[in-house]
Amino acid sequence: QVQLVESGGGVVQPGRSLRLSCAASGFTFSGYGMHWVRQAPGKGLEWIAFISYDGSKKWYADSVEGRFTISRDISKNTLYLQMNSLRPEDTAVYFCARHNTGDYSCDYWGQGTLVTVSS
Amino acid sequence: QSALTQPASVSGSPGQSITISCSGSSSDVGGYTYVSWYQQHPGKAPKLMISDVSNRPSGVSNRFSGSKSGNTASLTISGLQAEDEADYYCSSYTSSSTWVFGGGTKLTVL
């Protein structure tokens, strides 16, 4: 069955960096695009980044453009989110999700990892 | 990249039907069939309930249905059950090659 497991969250000071990982299993990782979606405490979902199945296309929300980088390692079946210049408003649970090529939905989600940006 | 507009809350009694609206623009909801709905219980990951405006993924109850008219999509839940109490989010692909979510709707089953 499809499994997505995020890791790498934690407490980080403003201005510092953090890298999140999302380990994928149960499907052919190299055949699917992937998303990162975040949710600030008590708030709604916010889409932040997408990477195509082959890594050739990367799209970002304005709120993270230039600070965050999405990437993938096919050999490790792992998705990454490199987060630089972190701000307190980046505090959120970060979810990875699989992209459904046919209907552009996020058809499977991980359980999320919490990132807290605080001094 | 403004969020899609959803009502903050809706409620209904067991057995009743409710509808949640999701308003966008011609650059997102109105311009594509790539509209999805997600259910999220507290502390859990979102779950895909409807994709492509009205398609139900395997395993999702047929009590859930979706539709779209112009720039507004809707999610209808019929025969409300206690387990349906959750937050619901719509989402759409956009003309900027991004995705946008609605602000979320809290469904209370009375």
Task: Describe the protein.
The complex is a heterodimer of chains A (119) and B (110). Chain A is mainly beta and 119 residues long. Helix content of chain A is 0%, strand content 51%. Chain A has strands at residues 3-7, 10-12, 18-25, 34-39, 45-51, 58-60, 68-73, 78-83, 92-99, 106-109, 113-117. Chain A is globular, with a radius of gyration of 13 Å. Chain A starts with a strand and ends with a strand. Chain B has no helices and 9 strands. Chain B has strands at 9-12, 18-23, 35-40, 47-50, 64-69, 72-77, 86-93, 99-101, 105-109. In chain B, a hairpin with a 5-residue loop joins β7 and β8 (99-101). The termini of chain B are far apart.
What's this entry about, in short?
Chain A is mostly beta strands and 119 residues long. Helix content of chain A is 0%, strand content 51%. The radius of gyration of chain A is 13 Å and the shape is globular.
Notable characteristics:
heterodimer, A: about 120 residues, mainly beta, four-stranded antiparallel β-sheet, 11 strands, B: about 110 residues, 9 strands
